[in-house]
Amino acid sequence: MLTLTIIKPDAVESGRAGKILGHLEAEGFTVRGARMVRLSEVEARVFYEVHRERPFFGSLVAFMTSGPCIPMAVERDEAVSYLREVIGATDPAEAAAGTVRKLYAESKERNAIHASDSPENAAREVAFFFSEAELRRIAGDPALTQV
Predict the structure, then answer these.
(1) Catalytic residue at 23?
(2) DSSP assignment of 22-55, as one string?
(3) Over the stretch 67-91, which tens digit does the pLDDT of each residue have?
(4) 30-44: per-residue pLDDT in tens?
């Protein structure tokens, strides 16, 4: 199963992206697609539209557009639920020991990493950053790799 994770601008800026990627791979995730992007305000608003009525929406959009981030389509069994477990609670002060946020997040708002929260959102979020053809090509689908 595929899910989406984003190494957020704070982790990219602080040089923690490689450590976070290594942590995910050590937990059995395989990267099926990755890129570095800088989200526009419109892109961030569309991506996080599920939170548009929440009081933190504006600051979330500002944070996610503050610098480059690294969205990744990652795969493993039970990817959505296991990734949520691996990254830990939104607030690093409440995150379990050894989780990504406990190790690498600065605060509840600058929390290093995003993870899809349901299979439905994972499908929508992966498609936001990666086309089906692109993911199939990366995976070596012979129908897309032959000239």
Answers:
(1) no
(2) HHHHHTT-EEEEE--B---HHHHHHHTGGGTTST
(3) 999 999 999 999 999 999 999 999 9
(4) 999 999 999 999 999
Please tell me whether the overall predicted TM-score, pTM, comes out greater than 0.85 for this model.
yes
Helix (H, G, I), strand (E, B) or coil at 2: strand
Distances (CA, A) of 60 to 9, 134, 145: 11, 28, 38
Among 90, 95, 34, 41, residue whose Cα is nearest residue 64 = 41
Task: Indicate left, alpha or beta for 57 from its phi (over 0: left) and psi (-120 to 50: alpha).
Answer: alpha
Q: Which of 104, 114, 116, 130 is catalytic?
A: 114
Query: Is 11 strand, coil or helix?
Result: helix
Supply 100's token pair: 């990504």
Per the CATH hierarchy, to which homologous superfamily does domain 2-38+70-136 belong? Nucleoside diphosphate kinase-like domain (3.30.70.141)
Domain boundaries, the chain: 2-38+70-136
Q: Are strands 2-7 and 70-75 parallel, antiparallel or unpaired?
A: antiparallel
